[in-house]
Write a structure and sequence with these properties.
Number of helices: 19
Shape: rod-shaped
Helix content: 40-55%
Number of strands: 29
Distance between the termini: 158 Å
Strand content: 15-25%
Strand order of the largest sheet: 10-9-11-12-13-18-19-20
Length: about 800
């Protein structure tokens, strides 16, 4: 042990410490050691804790793994000193060991010392592996585990929208465990890792060149650097050498606030780096004396075991800068302070049996000379106190401290050095949504940019599209595909599109559902207006024809063509023209029942009149034959009764239809995907086709009779015109059937209305136009002689 250097102070109880004074960062490690000494001396002066008990310390300086183990074993073994007054000996074994500053050396310390049940408290070892209580049963730390740091970094990456990152780590337990936890947390937060590599500060040039080539070829712009200050210096120098810019480094607490980073070539590569580190704190009254003596190599109190000369008082701090002077941002140094106080509180509770935690079965308190490390371990697990800065200190079941971090951004100062500026906080003890908070301080990004850099494999999919993963690539690499017909996505980066409700349809951007367009044959649209125009025009012509016939009712032509049936036919034609109007407008229960029944009854009335006129023509011809008295069997009374009988049959059919299953309004959502067609369902298709079939039967009968009478010898053969009208009527309705079945939406209604109007106009023109022509333009032909064809 002669090769190990040690700082020591005797006391009733001793705390051990292991630090690395001989590294190139003597200021930081020396500050840690001085903090431990300061805290112990502060406790010794404080009557409120361990009153009457003096704490001592043994602080070893190590260099390398072997020195670490030798120092740890030296602290555990100790030497026994003789107690003269009691005639017994006591062990110099320390009650707890503070250190080391790195995870890699702390692991063998915790493994070795754990067998002796001696508590080990680290202020800087963050490897999540140390939380394993089976492997490291006596390990505690006052710095959060990398498990929490990894999750915090994953939230940070997600917060800034970086879903495509690279990961670099130091090739040891600290780096590999840290980067593994980080990748797992990143995946849970929807972040993908393009590459993951590990190296050490002694890495070969070939492997380092391979890593640099990976960075050059990568498309990610954010690098998670889970390493120490030594590896980040190697990486920064290599990036500077290859002139690689445009990268955003996200760092771990092991290097982010290290003051020595400014000393390396290409340190400006690191400007804008961001990451989490332990919260800043202040320890008032510390380091002034130590620093003065160290900087000027003199002694302030005149008693100096290092044989330095007394300070003269003429020394000046002007123009002197050192990391040792910076007591405004004691991040990791404060962890040493908390560690010492944690041990002191455990010892205090042990001696006073606080919280009924007596280590003995009889409930008695421990005595100083019999205190064993395992007893301290038991009480250390239960400590819970608040520092003078208001920070609560306790350990969970795995020996970890509460996870509280400052979000630090490396920015250049006016002096040309890099400074870690706190721009946010992370507190794992808060609710999930409140754990990560940014403050109002401006963040400097990589290369000194002021805007947040982008690092994504694929740009975000806008609302109206959804993500489709690219084959054989991570989930962050995808194509944005428009939502299928009838579906929407109303959020960015939607995985799936969702269907709109039945009565809704996507807008043109497919990012929201809007009510479907409701369609029906309306009065204010072109087609509806045309139907109204033709319908009213038909009524107008029918009215004019009626007036013409009425004015010439006593003339031979009108009387010869059965004036009574003619006027009834004109009336039924008026109803036929008007019934087409019932097909226009929003369908309702009453309009649906009215339109079909009105159409069926008026047309049967119309065809019945035409059929009656046809029969009259035939009967009249038969009556001119010798010894024929057939007309007495089909006089005016029989004509009226035949029309009434034919019409009543249709009325009965319609009543049965309306009674059993009448037509009703429906919303047709099948014809068009983006429209709702308001139409009338037939109710009973049998009823509808029965109405049409009966009209067709009468029309066919009328056509046959008229065809048979087409060559009668009258100069004015009405049967000929009836034949033409029935021919048009049948042609219209035969054409109507396939057109009706195949027409979509409101065109079905339009087809039916135009069939009604066409057949009505056919009857009006074919039957009455020739008569009006003679009545108005050829009155000389309106004589009985001319009509009978006699010379």
């Amino acid at each position: 042990m002669s090769l190990l250097r040690m700082l020591a102070q005797k006391g009733d109880l001793t705390i051990g410490g292991i630090f690395s004074f001989r590294t190139s960062f003597i200021f930081r490690e020396f500050k840690f050691a001085q903090t431990m000494i300061f805290a112990i001396n502060e406790i010794n002066k404080n009557p409120g804790i361990l009153n009457g008990v003096k704490l001592g310390y043994k602080i070893y300086d190590d260099c390398g793994t072997m020195d670490v183990l030798r120092a740890a074993l030296a602290l555990v073994n100790g030497q026994r000193s003789e107690l003269i007054e009691k005639n017994c000996t006591r062990s110099e074994t320390v009650q707890a060991i503070l250190g080391h500053s790195g995870s890699r050396p702390t692991i063998p310390i915790a493994q070795t010392v754990g067998r002796f049940h001696v508590p080990v408290i680290s202020h800087f070892a963050t490897c999540a592996c140390l939380s394993n209580r089976r492997t490291y049963p006596t390990f505690f730390r006052t710095i959060p585990s990398d498990y929490y740091q990894s999750r915090a970094l994953a939230k940070l990456v997600k917060h800034f929208g970086w879903t495509w990152i690279g990961a670099l780590a130091v090739d040891n337990e600290y780096g590999l465990n840290g980067i593994s936890a980080l990748i797992q947390a990143a995946i849970e937060n929807g972040v993908c890792v393009e590459y993951s590599e590990a190296f050490s500060r002694t890495v070969s040039s070939h492997k380092l060149s391979r890593i640099i080539d990976i960075i050059k070829r990568s498309t990610s712009k954010v690098i998670m650097a889970f390493m120490t200050h030594q590896e980040i210096k190697v990486l920064a120098a290599e990036l500077y050498k290859h002139n690689i810019t445009g990268l955003q480094l996200v760092g771990s607490d092991a290097w982010l606030t290290d003051h020595s980073l400014t000393d390396i070539e290409g340190h400006r590569i690191l400007v804008g780096s961001i990451g989490f580190t332990v919260s800043r704190a202040q320890i008032p009254g510390q380091f002034v004396k130590d620093f003065w003596e160290y900087m000027f190599n003199c002694s302030l109190n005149g008693i100096d075991y290092m044989k330095r000369k007394p300070c003269s008082g003429l020394e000046s701090l002007h123009d002197i800068e050192s990391q040792f002077t910076d007591v405004s941002e004691l991040r990791f140094t404060n962890n040493i302070y908390k560690s010492v106080y944690a041990v002191a509180h455990a010892l205090n509770n042990l001696l006073k049996c606080r919280d009924t935690q007596s280590p003995f079965s009889n409930g008695s308190c421990a005595e100083i000379k019999y205190i064993q490390p395992w007893q301290v371990l038991q009480h250390l697990q239960a400590v819970n106190f608040t520092t003078t800065n208001g920070e609560r200190v306790y350990f969970d079941s795995q020996g970890d401290s509460p996870a509280r971090y400052d979000l630090v951004n490396l920015q250049m100062t006016k002096k040309g050095t890099m400074e870690g500026v706190t721009v946010g906080i992370y507190d794992a003890s808060l609710a999930e949504n409140n754990q990560f908070l940014m403050n109002n301080i401006s963040v400097v990004w990589g290369d000194g940019h002021t805007e947040v850099p982008a690092s994504v494999c694929s740009v975000s999919c806008l609302p109206g599209t959804h993500k489709v993963l690219q084959k054989q690539r991570p989930v962050c690499c995808y194509d944005c595909i428009p939502c299928p017909l009838g579906e929407i996505s109303n959020a960015t980066d939607s995985i799936d599109c969702m269907k709109c409700p039945l009565e809704y349809w996507p807008n043109k951007y497919r990012d929201s559902c809007i009510p479907k367009e409701v369609e029906f044959l309306a009065y204010n649209e072109t087609m509806g207006s045309v139907v109204v125009l033709f319908s009213l025009f038909g009524v107008f012509l029918t009215t004019i024809t009626t007036l013409v016939f009425y004015c010439h009712s006593e003339t031979p032509l009108v009387r010869a063509n059965n004036a009574e049936l003619s006027f009834l036919l004109l009336f039924s034609l008026t109803l036929c023209f008007l019934c087409s109007l019932t097909f226009i407008g929003r369908p309702s229960d009453w309009s649906c029942m009215l339109r079909h029944t009105a159409f069926g009854i008026t047309f049967v009335l119309c065809i019945s009149c035409v059929l009656g006129k046809t029969i009259v023509v035939l009967m009249a011809f038969r009556a001119t034959l010798p010894s024929s008295n057939v007309m007495k069997w089909f006089g005016p009374t029989q004509q009226r009764l035949s029309v009434l009988a034919f019409t009543l049959i249709q009325v009965v059919i319609c009543i049965l239809w309306l009674t059993i299953k009448p037509p009703y309004p429906i919303k047709n959502m099948e014809t068009y995907m983006d429209k709702i067609i308001l139409e009338c369902a037939l109710g009973s298709p049998i009823g509808f086709w029965a109405v049409l079939g009966y009209i067709g039967l009468l029309a066919l009968l009328c056509f046959i009779l008229a065809f048979l009478a087409r060559k009668l010898p009258d100069n004015f053969n009405e049967a000929k015109f009836i034949t033409f009208s029935m021919l048009i009527f049948c042609a219209v309705w035969i054409t109507f059937i396939p057109a009706y079945v195949s027409s979509p939406g409101k065109l079905t209604v339009a087809v039916e209305t135009f069939a009604i109007l066409a057949s009505s106009y056919g009857l009006l023109f074919c039957i009455f136009l020739p008569k009006c022509y003679i009545l108005l333009l050829k009155p000389q032909k309106n004589t009985k002689k001319h009509i009978m064809g006699k010379n």
